[in-house]
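P.,

For your records, the input lines for the assembly:
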Amino acid sequence: MRGKWLFGGIVGGAVASLALAAGDSVLSAAENNAPQKTTRRVDSQLRTEFQDASVKVAPPADDATYLRRVWLDLVGQPPAPKAILAFVHDTAANKRRRLVDTLLADERFGNNWAQYWTDVIFYRRSEERALIGARAATEYLATRFNDNDSWRDIAASFVTAEGDVREDGATAVIMAQAGRPEETVSELTRIFNGIQIQCAQCHDHPTDRWKREQFHHLAAFFPRVAVRPSRMGPQRTFLVVANNFPAFRRPNANNRFAGTLEHNMPDLNAPSAPGELMQPVFFVTGEKVKIGTDDAFRRGKLARWMTSDKNPWFANAFVNRVWSELVGEGFYEPVDDIGPDRECSSAATLAILADSFVASNYNVKNLYRTIMATEVYGRASGPRRTPIETPFAANCSQPLRDGQLYTSLFHALGLPDPATAAGRPGAGFRRQRGPRVLFKNVFGFDPSQRRDEVGGSIPQALTLMNSSQINRAIASREGTVSQLMHNTDDDREAITNLYLRVLARRPSKREIETCLAYRAESPSRLEAFQDMFWSLINTAEFKYRR
Amino acid sequence: MSHQHQNTGRKNSHPANLARRRFLQTIGAGGLAGGIVNWPDLMALKAEELRKKGMACIILWMQGAPSQFETFSPKPGHENGGETKAISTAASGIQISENLPQVARVMDRLCVIRSMSSKEGSHPRATFLMHTGYVPTASVKYPEIGAHIAQQLGDSASELPSFVRIGRSRINAKGGFLGVDYNPYVVDRAGGIPDNAEPATSTKRYRRRLALLDSLETHYAEHGGKQEVAKHRKLYRKSSQMVMSPKMSAFDLSQEPEHIRKQYGDSQFGADCLLARRLVEAGVPAIEISVGNWDTHFDNFSRTSDLCGQIDQPFAALIRDLETRGMLDKTLVVWTGEFGRTPRVNGRGGRDHYPRAYNAVLAGGGVQGGQVIGKTDASGESIEDRPVGVSDFLRTICHSLKIDADIEHMSGIGRPIRVVDGGEPVMEAFG
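C-alpha cells returned:
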C-alpha cells in the first residue's frame, strides 16, 4: 500500500520531488538551529507590537494545560494521567521543547493533521459520493506528514493527481469537485494559496483585484481532466483521468465542459454560445502555457507555479492555517481568504515565519517546532479578542475537531475505540453507519471556518448527554469509573484521578468539595462517580483545547 | 402521561395561541409600562407577529425524481404516456394518473404545476438546486429552504427545533451559512421519541447530573473560558429543555387516536406525514419528509405505481386532516422531486432524467386548489405555457409563508446572498 502512495506522490509532484531530493542533506544540517532563531524573531516582533499598544499579555500556561494543549494539537488526543504526572514533576528546563519533539515523531501526528486536511478538502465536496476518496486521502496525507515530506511536494501532488480515488489520496481535491475545471481550480487556489478567486467566476470582484478573465485562464489548466466511475474492481470507485483526445470524452449533464480539450469562458449575454477560448495563465505570476498542450504538461506547470517561491501566497496560506490552529487565531480570518487585498493582523510576524518556511524548503515539522516554541503558543488561553484589541496576547481556546473529541472520549472512558476499519470515513459512502462516521456527522465542522463561528449544536449535546452507548460505556465494568472504584476507597483520590483522566488536570479545591458534597447526597458511591464522569465529559472544558 | 395532559398540550401549543401568547409576553410586562415601546414600534411589533403567525411548511420530497407522466401529468393519448391511464378528480376538468386515486379526491385542494423546468440533470446537483435555489459551489454554503423558513419563522424560545427532517435524505445543504442553529433536526423515521432525546437515567437523576454539570463548568469559566462556557451553558439549557419538554410527545405517534392513524394508513410515509402534522401543531415551522427511490431507469411503470401506492393515502389524509383542524390555510404542503423523467420510454421500460419539463404540487398556505398551472405539448417534451423555474418555485413558497425572499445574508466570505436569487412568485397559484 505504502509503495503505491509514494508512487502516486512521485508521479504527481515529479518536478518538485527531484528538486527537493538534491537539497535534502543541506537542509538537515541547518535544521536544528533555524527554528529556534525564527522563534526568537517572532517573539521579539510580537513583543514590539505589544509595547506599541501597551498590551497586557497572558502569563505562561501552567504545565498541565500546556501538556494537554500540545498533545491535542500534535497527536489529537489528551495525555494519560501517568504522562501528566511525569511532565509536571519533570524539572528539566527544556522539557516543553522535548515534549514537542517527541510528539512530532509520533505516528499519530501524521494521522491527526491528515484528518484536518481531509476535512479541509471534503467539507467543500460538491457531491456526497466524493467521500469515497476520503479514506485514501487521510492515509496518504498521514504517511507524507509522518515522513516530513516537503509541503511543496504534497501540495503539488494534489494538482497533478491521476488514478483510482480509493487508492491515491492525492486525487482528493479533484474528486471532491467531481473534476469540474472551475470548481477544482477554485478549490486548489483556496486550499493551497488561500485565495478565493472563484468570486470572479461570473463578474469582476468589487473588493478583489482578480478579473473574470483571470479566473477562466486558471480554469483553462483543467479542461482535460475528468472523474469517471469505474466498476472494474471489486468495489465501485472513480478514476481521475486525463484525456488529450476528444474522441474519448462525451459531454454529460454533470459537466458542461466534458468533451472539450480547451476551456471557454461563457458569454454572460449568450449563455448557450460556446464562449471565448481561454489560454491557461496562472493569475498570481502571469506565467502561461500554450493552448493545445497536453494535460500532464499543463498541470505540471500549474503545480510548479502554485507552489513556487515566487508565489508568496503558497507559504503564507500554510503558515496561516498552522498558526491559526496552534495559536487560536489566524493572521488572516477566515484562514482561506488571504491574498493581497486582505488585512493581515501581524504582517511582520507572518513574514518571518513564511520566509523561514520557504528557506527550509517547506519543512512542515520545523514549522510546528518553530510556532510551538513561541511565547504566544505557550501562554494561558484567554477569550477571543475584540477587533480593536492587539492580537496574540494570549493563546485562544479552540473547540476540538471531531477526531480529537472522539479520541478524547474513548480515552476518558478507558475503553478501546470500537470504530473498526469499516466505520472509518470514506469506507463506503452509502454504508457509513459506523460509530466514527456517526460521530463525525454530529460533531464535525469545516476546519476552514472561523472557530468562534463554530457553534455547539443540540444534537451534540443530546449525544453526549443521552446516548445509550456512552451511558453504557460509563457504567461498563471495564470502564474508567469501575476501575477507579476498584483501585481506591479514598474519594479524594478517586476524584483527582477522574479529573486527570477526563480533563488532564488536577481538580481545584473547590471542585473536590463540590464532588464530595455530591457524593454525600448520592444514593451510592458508584452512582455518584458515574454522575461526576458524565458531568465532566459534558463540560465545555472537555470539548475545548485550552 | 395522562389523556388530560395531552389535550392541554395540544390546545396551548396551537401555533396561533402560541403566537398570541408570545406577542402578549413580548409587549406585556416591561414594554408598555416602562414606556420603552412607543405606538409605532408597537404596531411594527404587531405586524411582525401577525405576519408570521403560525405559518408552516411541510415538504414532501420525492427523492430520485418521480415521473411526471405517472403522477400528476399523464399523457394517455400519446405514446410517450406509456400504459398509464388518467383518472378524473374532485376538480372538474383536471385529470391525474390512475396511480393516485385518493389524491384525486382532494384535487380541489391541490395546485399542480406542470411546467417546472431546470437545467440540472444530476441527482445531487438538482437536489441541491431545488432545496437552495443555487447550484452547489465550494465557496458558498447555501442554506436550504427549510433552514430559511426556520430562520424567519422559527421561535428561538421554542422548546422544539424549528426545522425537522424525517427520513434519511441525500441533501447536505442544511443551515449553510445561516449556522448550525438552522440545521434540520433529523429523525430517521417517525414512530416514538427520537434517539438521544430522552434521558439515559431517571428524570430525577438526570436533573441532579445537570446541576452538577453546571457547577463543574465554573472552573473553566474562571480560567479563560468565560465566553465558551456561557455559550455552552445556553446550549445545554436549550437541549435539556427540549429533552424534558412535554411537547416532545409530538414525536410519539402512539398518542394519536386510532382512527386518525388509520386515515394515514400503515406505510412508513403515512407515519411520517402524521408526525409532520403533529409537529406543525406543536409549533415547528419547517418539516421535510423524504421518500423514494423514484429513480426508475427501468421498470418505470410498476415501480412508480408501487411508490404512488405508498404515498397516495397518506398525502390525501394529510391534506384532509390539516383542513379538518383548520390548519391548511396556514400550512403549505409542497410535493416535488429534483427533476422529471424522459418522455420517451427507454428499452428497459424505464424513464431517464429529464429536467426540462416536470411537475410539482402545492396545497394549503393560501394556495388556490383545483387548478393546473403551465402546460407541456402533447408529447410532454417541451413546455408550451408558463415555464416555472426553480427560483420562481422557491419564491412561490416564500410568498405563501410570508417570508422575505430578498433578505440578504452574509456568506462566510462576506458576500451578500439573497434567500432566492431572481425569479418571480407564481401568483396564479394564490387565486
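Two observations worth noting. Chain A has a mean pLDDT of 87. The longest helix of chain A spans residues 33-52.

Regards
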